[in-house]
Amino acid sequence: FACSPPAPKTKKEDLFDREAELAELLEALKGDSRLILLVGMRRVGKTSLLKVALNELGRPHIYLDMRALRSYADVSFYELLSDGINEILPLHKRLLDHLKNVRGVAVSGFTISFDLKYSKPSILQLLKGVNQWAKEEGLALPIIFDEAQELRYFRGRVDIARLIAYSYDNLENVKFILTGSEVGLLYSTLNLFESSSPLYGRHRKLITLNRFDRDLSAKFLREGFKQKGLQVDDTLIEYVVDKLDGIVGWLAYVGAEIVSRVKKGGKVGTELVERAVEEAVELVEDEVKKLPKTHIMVLQCLADGAKRWSEIKTYLTMRAGRTFANPQLANILDRLMKLSMVGKENDRYFLLDNLLGEAARRVRGF
Length: 366
Prior knowledge:
Oligomer: single chain
Structural class: alpha/beta
CATH superfamily of the largest domain: P-loop containing nucleotide triphosphate hydrolases
Largest sheet: 5 strands, parallel
Distance between the termini: 41 Å
Number of domains: 3
CATH class of the largest domain: Alpha Beta
Strand content: 5-15%
Order of helices and strands: HEHEHHEEHEHEHEHHHHHHHEEH
Shape: globular
């Protein structure tokens, strides 16, 4: 598990110390839950947990990874949807009988595509067809939107909240699983807490995946290095733990980098470990550079120790040479919290990923 290339896991034996969360997710998948939300900050292992659970469940499912979208145009979503359905068609050909008459669906052999020339395909009709097939098969079909907050950016937005609400009330043999790293954006996409939302008041199963604590982070690395036949000094492991603060994806990434560098002739030591951590920081820096300048300045401000609203506002005013209106600062902080980059507790703001601070400090030029 640890110290291997950090691709999502699919086998239970490769999942490290997520037994409780796996049991909870499997119970929801097998039970009566119709809407399951799997949330947590980026790189804590949500996709791995989900894929292992689906593998353990052993049922057909439609899996849509919203990060695979080519663009936010409708055509990209329909391509992703057809790919997800086509994944299960070879083993479940009778599903075609329920889809071939859906408006906008074109069938070729044992695959489908969507014809967008004249009108948008009816996703509602498609869901009804999927539900009828699942009913005849005696199963509840999971439909997964991984990183579902991406739906909010569509031009001619797909109203996923309304579709799920209709399915919740009328289609008993489909259930929806939505994951989100940008937790605030996911909630905003679904309008879960707004009385005007189609999903308001409907039961949802919420599963939250947290980062590892210090002891578990160190154990994760030690066992991973042991599997690879490496002896790594406890001082170096503690250094990595301090830097990465329990974020599983970074622990796996840095562990894999250390193993890779040793295989290429490197010697396990401070310099090699620091370089592996540096690789992770550079990846985060690439992400930070995509943010608006004002957002980067707020990250830099938090990295430099400011926590309260007044401290952040003073810092920004000094850096930018102008005063920031309260609504503008509120919008920036709200956006960063929705992106799961910044947290807030007792009127104090903080970075959710240690590497964000180091990465933000390096972004200059404004």
